[in-house]
Amino acid sequence: MRYIVFLLLLVITVEAKPQNQGDTMQFWSVSYIDWPPLASEPQFQIEAVCRKVGLHCYIFEATNVIPAISQNDIDELASLFDTCFYERLTELYGPAPDEFDNDSSVFILLYPEQNWAGYFDPGNQMADSFVYANWNRHSNEREIIYAASSVFQNDIQNMVIAHEFGHMVHWQGDHSPEPVVNPTQYWEDAWIDEGFSTFAAAWLLEDFDVEMTDYEAWFSGNADLPLLEFDVYDDYNQSKLWMVYGYERFGGADYLKALRNEQLNGIDGYMATLANLGYAIPFNAIFTNWILATLIDDPTFAGGEYYFQHYNFSGYNYWKSHYIYPVATVSGSVYRYSADYIRFQAFTTNDLEVSFHSDNQECTIAFLFYSGSLITGLETFQPDVSGDVFFRRSDHPYTTDKIIMAVINTDDANPTMTYSYSAEKVTGIPAENCSRDIQVIVQDRTIIVSNRNALSYSIVAMNGKLITVGDLSPGDNQIAVSDLPAGTYLLNLNDNLKPRRELFVIR
Q1: For residues 42 and 55, is the Cβ–Cβ distance under 8 A?
Q2: With 413 labelled, which of 77, 145, 204, 404 sits at a CA distance of 20 to 30 A?
Q3: Alpha-carbon span 68 to 191, nearest angstrom
Q4: Is pLDDT of 462 > 80?
Q5: How many other C-beta atoms lie within 10 A of the C-beta of residue 121?
Q6: Does residue 263 contact residue 186 with C-beta atoms inside 8 Å?
Q7: Cβ density class 404-439: b for 16+ within 10 Å, e for less
């Protein structure tokens, strides 16, 4: 009798484990138990055929995908997942889940979907009876990565699968058992969760030993993006750069594994992780330094304190830029755990004074000094008891022709912080602290020239045709070019000391 029972169990185990190429299976679609905006979407069954059995994955394609994805594309994805994604990410983060089916392979399910490109559904990591009792939805009780079949047409399949696999492996370590009363109360905050998934895609598809430019850096579009909220596309990039900064600053893989396995969530979990790793840095200080690192990103400045090793950045979207003074009072607001960048230029040999006020003292006002594109100095201030900061350029001995004021809101208690500032130029800055006697800025079809000495100028088209000539007095001057057709032009400046030429573009 014992021998017969043993054989029966052995047969059941073998039949339940592997899938075969060509097999047809039924799957439940995404339950959306973790995404309220789509919670009303009906759940339905998907009939799918196994297109590939890999070492660590099964790739299933829904029978209604038209046209079918090429076998070559399927094979390439399976090979990449087996030889790179699975091995490298589980080594970095920790093991992948294997909750119910006693099969370590991951199902990748491709089917037509309009709402998203990829999805990891935590409902599949819970018993079907539990999911149905709490949300009236179903679980497949398998490790599944959902992907829209259109990702192959857009050539983003590798990024999407890497991202969703990041969610899956993060989930395995960073969630507590779901309590019956409130199943979602222990789920990680989105800015941490998406940080793990976006970092995973970067880690798996980029070479972290090589510097590269991040052309999608969120601050090139809108710097005032709150870190702790997750509502728009740029939040993905912001969460990635937050995770990259922590990885580079706080211990690499040890930091990631510790954060993944910490059961506290949000700021509490982040700070508990750093404490366990031996770091005693306040969260507000980390956030401030991270914001400054996105602006400075220079390994030679301040001992590399404000520097991304892996990424360079191509540009910034300043909330305000000032070239003409005085600047009357400007009012603004900034979200919590976010920042505004404000640029001051064209002050030449004059001193620059900035008066800042906010009713909120939980913020840092940073002034960054640049000579051309080179960072030369940094000064940070906290508002006094009245909420005021007064900045005078001549109090700080840095060579500069551009100053950026960063308004960094670290108040966790209020969703926004309001503030105001004004600026003016006064005489008195030492000439040796100005990097250039002439500054040229093109803005809104106007050329702004700030110069110490009298100048003559001419504008010439690229075919050599002379457009206009004139003279400029010392100080700030404006040359209107609004009547010029779109094209590239040459501005010649001459102060009888050293001629200067500037190319500018009219769009």
Answers
A1: no
A2: 404
A3: 35
A4: no
A5: 26
A6: yes
A7: bbbbbbbbeeeeebebebebebeeebeeebbbebbb
Distance of CA 484 to the CA centre of its chain: 38
Distance set, CA 404 to CA 322, 324, 401, 428 (Å): 10, 15, 10, 20
Nearby residues of 96 by Cβ (< 8 Å), 6 or more positions away: 86, 90, 104, 106, 143, 165, 168, 169, 172
Q: pLDDT, tens digit, for every residue of 395-425?
A: 988 989 899 999 999 999 999 999 999 999 8
**Topology agreement, domain 320-433 and domain 438-506:** no
What are the sequence ranges of the domains in the chain?
A: 1-187, 191-315, 320-433, 438-506
pLDDT value, residue 501: 73
Q: How far apart are CA 453 and CA 465, in angstroms?
A: 27
Place of tokens 């457009």: 467
Residues, the chain, total? 507
Q: How confident is the model at residue 434 (pLDDT cuts 50, 70, 90)?
A: very low
Q: Which strands make up the sheet holding 363-371, listed edge to edge?
A: 320-322, 338-345, 402-409, 363-371, 374-381
Architecture of domain 438-506: Sandwich (2.60)
Q: How far apart are CA 455 and CA 474, in angstroms?
A: 8
Going by their DSSP bridges, the two strands 311-313 and 212-214 should be labelled as: parallel
Whether the model clears a pTM of 0.90, i.e. scores above it, the answer is: no
Residue 349, amino acid:
T
pLDDT at residue 299 tops 70: yes
Q: Is 157 left (phi over 0), alpha (psi -120 to 50) or beta?
A: alpha
Domain 320-433 adopts which CATH fold? Answer: Jelly Rolls (2.60.120)
| Whether pLDDT at 286 is above 60 | yes
pLDDT class for 348, splitting at 50, 70, 90? low
Average pLDDT of the residues in 37-59: 96
Count of CB atoms situated within 10 Å of the CB of 373: 7
Q: β-pairing, 487-494 with 500-506?
A: antiparallel
d(CA 158, CA 165): 11
Calculate the average pLDDT of the chain: 89
Q: CATH topology for 1-187?
A: Zincin-like (3.30.2010)
